[in-house]
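I am still getting used to backbone structure tokens and would like to learn alongside you. Label the sequence line and the structure token line clearly, so we can match residues to local backbone shapes. Would you write everything just below, so we can both look at the same thing?
***
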Amino acid sequence: MPIDAFGFVAYHSTMTNDETNNIQPEQDPLTIGELISLQEAAEYAGLTKDTLHNYVKRGRLRAKKIGWMWVTTRAAVDEYLQSRDTKSIPNKYRNPA
């Protein structure tokens, strides 16, 4: 068993780079699709622009500022909507099951 200068055991992996070992990095949702304004995102999500702006400030929704305007993508909105905990949404706003 090979041991390096620090006394650590060196292991050799026989794994190959096939589908089982091919880990893809997570893709940034801001790079998927076209950029839309927070107003367009609010209409898409069924929320208000101010609500989305608060989510952006808290880091819950991925967005970026271009000049004076905040923009995001539908993919980022979808990612946020999927991450929400339904227990924190009032019953009257939950989607029927």
